[in-house]
Specification:
nine-stranded mixed beta sheet, nucleotide binding, GMP Synthetase, Chain A, domain 3, nucleotide-binding, four-stranded antiparallel beta sheet, AMP-bd_C_sf, 2 domains, phenylacetate-CoA ligase activity, 444 residues, alpha/beta, ANL_N_sf, disordered C terminus
Length: 444
């Protein structure tokens, strides 16, 4: 769709959404009045900046159904976040919402390389988490033979991949990586399976992780983006042809990038906070929802032929930037450094603690089977291991200006996840796992 035609469609749908939330959601009626927005004279895209932002806390404050714009008899499904910080955020769907969701997920599978006749192995978790059912109905909408495996049970998943011979797979990158490792431990080769493409999301992952997955499985590995507050998976996805940014389904989701401190728009190509307005949601539309995810956008058509705006990979989150002794760093910046070392496996955890008023970062990494066989019991104190450890420390200092402790483990020692990997444990204020404040259920 050409930009001019798309803009006209967005303009029309934005005005309809503003009217809907104003008349159906008291929260937005109050916010519009405070912002001086009159839906009857609202001019669409040119006045987008006048609309108020919506935050994660607004959803929690109106738990469970206070932001719904449809009567409950019209709402045929509910999903919710994990609620690890208290009450979960709840989202609802009408039948029309589910139809649109299936459509954008079907498009995503096509962009990843899917086609009619495929068997599709869906290893995203099913339940209140949106990942499993979102991709499931997208695959069925496309006419694929859908295998609803969900997460966990690596041995069973490996058996089904070998026996059913799916062409596509979906799941969190950390789980699919550990699934491949489980196959190799059993003497099997992931790269010899029938799989040709994989759709991975729900957690940040790097180009180095993509390379590891593609080499392990012999597939095209593409990144998918979504969050339950907006709809779930399918908001944006990479194409297998280019893998140069995620194509946003702009006829359903209006994207902005803002300075997280000022709320002002930033130029295309500049890093900022992603903001989405839903254009077709009925049960729970959101206006200018601040995702907390940091990315940039580019509007040039892709070499695959698609014309919708593309977003970069997620750089990090507004609220998960670590400040370690005055150095600002995102956990996602550390992964490429680890994965660039052939002796290290793509499994790691970051531990932040405070001692005597000073923050201390410990990076726990895992070596490969090949490297471990070469050093054996000298992993912790041997000269070869010390050289690798010192090289990694120097790389962190040179790249990020960051000093840290590095602890190397034997293969299999870093905990594996059945879903989203736990990469960061912050013990400065608590002795439990760190959960990002206002974290959307990305992917899902």
């Amino acid at each position: 769709m050409e930009r001019e035609e798309l803009s006209r469609l967005q303009d029309k749908r934005l005005c309809q959404t503003v009217e809907r939330v104003y008349h159906c959601v008291p929260f937005y009626q109050k916010k519009f009045k405070e912002s001086g927005v009159d839906p009857s004279s609202f001019k669409g895209l040119e006045e987008l900046g006048k609309l108020p932002f919506t935050k994660k806390s607004d959803l929690r404050d109106h738990y469970p159904f206070g932001l719904f714009a449809a009567e409950m008899e019209e709402v045929i499904r509910l999903h919710a976040s994990s609620g690890t910080k208290g009450k979960p955020t709840v989202v609802g769907y009408t039948q029309r919402d589910l139809d649109h969701w299936s459509e954008v997920c079907a498009r995503a599978i096509i962009a990843a390389g899917g086609k009619l006749g495929d068997l599709f192995h869906n290893a995203y978790g099913y339940g209140l988490f949106t990942g499993g059912l979102g991709m499931h109905y997208g695959a069925e909408r496309l006419g694929l033979t859908t295998i609803p495996v969900s997460g966990g049970n690596r041995a069973r998943q490996a058996m089904l991949i070998e026996d059913f011979r799916p062409r596509g797979i979906a799941g969190t990158p950390s789980f699919i990586l550990s699934l491949g490792e489980a196959m190799m431990e059993a003497g099997k080769k992931p790269g010899s399976t029938s799989l040709e493409y994989g759709i991975f999301g729900a957690e940040p992952w790097s180009e180095e992780m993509r390379q590891a997955l593609e080499e392990m499985w012999g597939i095209h590995a593409v990144d998918i983006y979504g969050l339950s507050e907006v709809i779930g998976p399918g908001v944006a996805i990479e194409c297998w042809q280019a893998k140069e940014g995620l194509h946003i389904a702009e006829d359903h989701f209006l994207v902005e990038v803002i300075n997280p401190d000022t709320g002002e728009a930033v130029p295309d190509g500049e890093l900022g906070e992603l903001v989405f307005t839903t254009l077709t949601k009925e049960a729970m539309p959101v206006i200018r929802y601040r995702t907390g995810d940091l990315a940039s956008i580019h509007r040039e058509p892709c070499r695959c032929g698609r014309t919708h705006t593309r977003m970069s990979r997620i750089k990090g989150r507004v609220d998960d930037m670590l400040i370690i002794r005055g150095v600002n760093v995102f956990p996602s910046e550390i992964e490429p450094i680890i994965l660039s070392q052939p002796e290290l496996a793509p499994h790691y955890q970051l531990m932040v603690e405070r001692e005597g008023g000073l923050d201390r970062l410990t990076i726990e990494v895992e070596v490969t089977e090949t490297y471990y066989r070469s050093v054996g019991k000298e992993l912790q104190n041997g000269q070869q291991a010390k050289l690798l450890q010192n090289y990694l420390l120097q790389k962190l200092r040179d790249t990020l200006g960051l000093s840290a402790q590095v602890v190397m483990h034997a293969p299999g020692r870093i905990p594996r996840s059945e879903g989203k990997a736990v990469r960061l444990i912050d013990r400065r204020n608590t002795d439990t796992h760190f959960h990002r404040k206002n974290k959307p259920e990305r992917g899902m």
